[in-house]
Write a structure and sequence with these properties.
Elements lengths: L2 H4 L3 E3 L5 H6 L3 H9 L2 H5 L2 E3 L5 E3 L1 H4 L6 H22 L6 H11 L5 H12 L3 H8 L8 H12 L3 H8 L8 H13 L2 H8 L8 H13 L2 H8 L8 H12 L3 H8 L8 H9 L3 H8 L2 H5 L3 H15 L3
Parallel strand pairs: 1-3
Antiparallel strand pairs: 2-3
Length: about 325
């Protein structure tokens, strides 16, 4: 049962702040008190002889200077509790239910360093984020674009796309961290979205993105990256094709071999000599760059290795 159903009113137990107690009968605080749990309010209130429930001053002294801060604090605790319980029970969080509370209570939507848009972005609550972006006090670029980062980390494509429409958001902030994480996670659709932004540099950190995508076998991401003229698949001594060959990703090896910048014969044909995947070895031997630098002795050794590999079960 909710506290508001049980008690007539709430007051602040503080003689030198009389207006504070009066404000607690405000419509917005009463709406919030309808949704927060009784256990939460027990921690903040105490019943006295006159039948009223007072907020415990020692619990809020030096923490809340205004009624609005107390109201926002109650909302945040309810929001956390509501969304956590819903997600724990694997039920859908209804953004409209939360939006109704936000609209009725006239919350400061930038409260606590824009906490609300950060959490809503992290959880992919598209409608809430859209509502928050309409408020001029809400800053989606807060803390090095934290809302956008969390939307990307959570794989929330629609929310990330929505945030990108705001000119204040920089998806390339923090050394292209959102793009890096998207590539590592193999999130092709997010990578495609981020590549559309001129603020994202897919060649950052010596073309880390194509090197890690080749290492992990993310074919579709490699295809996207190869279409971007800023990406150099031969960076760091042709590491991309080295990793793809070592890990047996033949389709990626084929894609990389089509790029004239890639040299599969690097380091005296180290790639083909060390490769343990028969079909990739066969593919590399057909490459002119490899054949032109391969001695007859090395060629015969590789052919013998291929024969041995063909008998490995």
């Amino acid at each position: 049962m909710k506290y508001l159903k049980l008690f007539e009113s709430y007051r602040i137990e503080c003689d030198d702040f009389p207006d504070y107690g009066h404000e607690l009968s405000n419509k917005s605080i009463r709406i919030l008190l309808e949704v927060v749990s009784a256990d939460f309010l027990k921690n903040l209130t105490i019943k006295v002889d006159d039948g009223y429930y007072y907020f415990k001053w020692d619990r809020i002294y030096n923490k809340f200077e205004t009624f609005s801060e107390l109201r926002d604090y109650i909302f945040i605790n309810w929001f956390y509790s509501y969304t956590y319980k819903i997600s724990k029970n694997k039920k859908q969080v209804f953004d409209e239910d939360i939006l109704n509370i936000i609209r009725k209570t006239e919350l400061d939507l930038s409260f606590d360093n824009n906490w609300l848009i950060i959490v809503s972005s992290e959880r992919g609550q598209y409608e809430i984020v859209r509502h928050l972006l309409k408020d001029p006090n809400v800053d989606p670029s807060i803390n090095k674009n934290s809302p956008f980062k969390w939307a990307v980390y959570g794989g929330h494509l629609r929310t990330a796309e929505l945030l990108l429409m705001d000119s204040r958001v920089n998806p390339g902030d923090d050394d292209n961290e959102p793009f890096k994480i998207s590539v590592i996670r193999g999130d092709t659709m997010m990578v495609e979205l981020l590549l559309k932004s001129p603020k994202v540099d897919p060649s950052y950190s010596k073309n880390f993105s194509i090197r890690i995508a080749s290492n992990k076998g993310f074919v579709d991401i490699v295809k996207l990256l190869l279409k971007d003229p800023r990406v150099d698949p031969s960076d760091l001594d042709n590491e991309a094709i080295k990793e793809a060959s070592k890990n047996g990703f033949m389709e990626i090896v084929e894609l990389l071999l089509k790029d004239p910048r890639v040299d599969p014969s690097v380091n005296n044909n180290e790639i083909v000599k060390s490769c343990e995947h028969r079909y990739i070895v066969s593919l590399l031997l057909k490459n002119k760059k490899v054949r032109n630098k391969l001695s007859m002795i090395d060629y015969l050794k590789i052919k013998l290795k291929m024969r041995l590999l063909s008998h490995v079960i």
